[in-house]
Design a protein that fits this description.
mainly alpha, single chain, TubC N-terminal docking domain-containing protein, 2 strands, 118 residues, 7 helices, two-stranded antiparallel ribbon, 8% strand, globular
Length: 118
């Protein structure tokens, strides 16, 4: 999982991420998710995450977008993050500027339907 995928996955699962000033990330959430290994991974990628969070509209935007995308799909958040969305998609969703979430969901649905027939 990329740093952005991990950050998004954590937020969707209830971890809040706050940007304090311009150089400090503060994570609040279940210890079962914020393990030493996860925190080490996030710390290693801190410069990238700071840049990604700088233009973000908020975790509610991310959560709402993913709830919308998963609506009616038999797909896990992890599969959606890892198999269907690019880094650019994730950045656009985080900023609240993804051009057409409905079209994206329909495209994913079409792919999933095609896989079921195979």
């Amino acid at each position: 999982m990329s740093p952005l995928q991990l950050l998004t996955w954590l937020e969707i699962h209830g971890v809040s991420v706050n940007l304090v000033g311009s150089q400090k990330l503060v994570f609040h959430g279940p210890k079962s998710l914020l393990t030493d290994q996860v925190m080490a991974h996030l710390k290693k990628d801190k410069p990238f995450l700071l840049k990604a969070l700088a233009g973000q509209q908020g975790t509610s935007t991310v959560g709402e977008a993913f709830r919308f995308l998963c609506e009616g799909l038999s797909i896990s958040i992890t599969v959606l993050l890892c198999d269907y969305l690019t880094e650019d998609d994730l950045l656009d969703i985080r900023k609240g500027v993804y051009p057409d979430l409905t079209a994206l969901r329909q495209l994913i649905q079409k792919d999933l339907t095609g896989r079921d027939r195979s």
